[in-house]
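Entry type: protein chain
Record version: 2
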Amino acid sequence: MKPHPDVCALLLAGGQSRRMGGGDKCLLPLAGRPILERIVGIVRPQAAAMVLNANGDPARFAAFGLPVAGDAVEGFPGPLAGVLTGLEWARDNAPACRWVASVPCDAPFIPADLVARLLDAAAADADMACASSGGRDHPVVGLWPVRLAGALRHALVQEDVRKVDVWTARYRLARAAFAIEPVDPFFNVNRPEDLAEAEAALARAQAG
């Protein structure tokens, strides 16, 4: 698979992981290696550039060799701040990229064709696209045009918009639908029991 030359991948790890007891969920081991390592391996071949959105000391991610950018808006305002961070980072550091594809760092089963399918969905006269599975949208698994960085900053800072779907409702949003068998590709590791479930799903996949 060739990386899409006009797409920057944005790995979202800026949350506070309260349901996991704090810390960085993406650094938890899954099948013997950090979840983040697994996600980077899946996503890196799909995009021309990649940035990790995470707050705090970036040195804890040094082993992954990724640029790290903290939230562009202070106060942990949620995933829209992470999306804005990616858009502004791509604008300033990857000018060939017209799109940013966002991926949460607690979703270890992200598809290897995610970016291609989001691009296909957006090509049908849409401003942006998000993934869906099992009849449910996943707003933070999305494809965002860099040209809307200024509009998103205004919405966050001047209008105090916090919910992703409130902002996307202003635009033409396409959806890329994915099957949920043998595992939902957007399964989130939010709690310790989710991590155990992900371990079991990986074991089943390897056995099959």
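Comment: The chain has one domain: 4-207.
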